[in-house]
Prior knowledge:
mainly alpha
Amino acid sequence: MDISQDYGQIFTNKLDTSMDELPPLNTGITSAPGRALVRPAPGLAHAAEGATRRVRVRRDRVDHVALATVYLVSAFSLAGFATFGRHPERLANAPLAASVYGWMLLLAPRVQILVAFIVLAVVLTRHAAARWVPAFVGLYVLSLSSELSGTTLGLPFGPYHYTPALGARWFGHVPLLIPLSWFFMALPSYAVARRRFPEPRKVAQRVLAGSLLLLSWDLCLDPAMSLVTSFWVWGTAGPYYGMPLLNLAGWYVTGLVLMVALAWLRTDDWISRLSLPWQVGFYGANLLLPLGMSVVAGLWGAATTTVIALGVCWLIVHPRSARHGGTSGAR
């Protein structure tokens, strides 16, 4: 028997036992099968969390300021219309004010559309980078095609034409700005409908609901912009404040096409990055001017119809669980 080997074996076993009894060394590193994970120190974790929170607050503040800008432009335009548009006698003895209001009346709708689009584009870029651009291009082309068909063939809206008040026009028919408004109102309409119907198997319900919400906007937009003012003129008289009922059908069909395009272009992959309350607020900011003009002009039927249509949309898109005190898993 080799005594040195016996003592060596005893020493090795004792060393192994002692090492097993030692408490684990806190290195901040944990292991997992196939990889190692580094766990930061508590102080660093709190610092990173605080930095993330500050970035989020700063981003939310920018979004709120952007949305407030759209509301301010709408409110300013509405105030000018209520003060001078409905009471032109107030300008009789104020030539400077009359000149300023004349320019404002000419530029306000263009500024309204441009500001709303720029605000949405900035917010989309901040949250989704350039992923929204294909949807914008697709909806611009589709809505322009629908408008060109309407202004030349009378379908799907009925016969009408745009006046020069909205600036340069595609092929002498459709203002360049009009497809922008289709895009920036179709997007929040789709987002709200998606809240109620987020599942891929319910895309049909989402498309139908989103198109109805988009149509609700036109119930006050058309009377305000073609009867109270003259940004476009109908070629035939209709029962709804001079607008043919075919226009409502055309709006809904066009809305369906836009909603299908948004679904097909995988808008769901990035639209959830935007706050849904922000998008609802954005819809409201652009609804404010035509709805307010309808009220100021005494078109109570148009205002009431719009509110009723929006109420129906709310009943459709608001989850039943929320109406009964529950919660919804959809954003």
